[in-house]
Specification:
The protein is mainly alpha-helical. The chain has ten helices and no strands.
């Protein structure tokens, strides 16, 4: 499936935003603005990945609940999207278009957070290897079961590590290292983010929660 462009999403949003709550309209307006910026970065995958991640974050970010984690919050967002995605666009994108890049991400220790934790803490116990093997097994089982919500969560979990490397200065811009995972990340996010926004636009009355930093003044 070819994802909709930012311009197409912007026009759809203009047509329905009067029916939306202020929070939902703001959330989508912000996300589409960052997707628009990402589409301008044809020759800079690092910048494109960062702008795509900001677009995704704008789509789902909200205040934390008392007992809520970032991962748990995102998992609930994904489950909501999959439930709303009547045409199964997200499912099709994952399993028909990105099976190769997804398996590459799953097999890549450099986007597995416990690997870096063990490196920082000089942990030579190889516990991260056991965790990595278990994670790969669970991820591949979810792929084989075509469990869209679980696979999406795992994919974004891996891409979150890549996001941290770039945003926190843990990588060199346009480095020769890690090019494939950045390119795969751009390809995956470049398809999934517009589809996420499209699903949200299909359900203008759905409450995705209060936005962080509401527009004031």
């Amino acid at each position: 499936m070819t994802p909709p462009s930012a311009d197409a999403l912007k026009q759809r949003h203009r047509d329905i935003r009067h029916t939306q709550s202020t929070d939902t309209a703001t959330r989508l307006h912000r996300a589409i603005s960052w997707l628009t910026r990402a589409e301008q970065e044809k020759d800079d995958p690092d910048a494109c990945f960062i702008f795509l991640w900001v677009a995704l974050n704008a789509a789902y970010a909200r205040e934390f609940g008392r007992d809520e984690t970032e991962r748990g919050r995102f998992r609930r967002f994904v489950e909501t999207l999959v439930g709303l995605d009547a045409c199964q666009c997200l499912h099709a994108a994952l399993f028909e278009r990105f099976s190769g890049p997804i398996r590459t991400l799953i097999d890549n220790r450099y986007v597995f957070d416990p690997f870096w934790t063990a490196l920082r803490e000089h942990d030579s116990s190889d516990r991260w290897k056991t965790a990595f093997a278990n994670s790969r097994k669970a991820a591949l089982a979810a792929v084989l079961a075509r469990d869209t919500a679980t696979v999406l969560t795992i994919v974004f979990d891996r891409l979150y590590v890549l996001r941290n490397q770039l945003v926190h200065g843990g990588a060199t811009w346009n480095s020769r290292l890690n090019r494939q995972q950045v390119r795969d990340g751009v390809a995956i996010l470049g398809t999934l983010v517009p589809l996420v926004l499209s699903v949200m636009l299909d359900h203008p009355q759905h409450d995705f929660g209060e936005v962080l930093y509401p527009a004031v003044g």
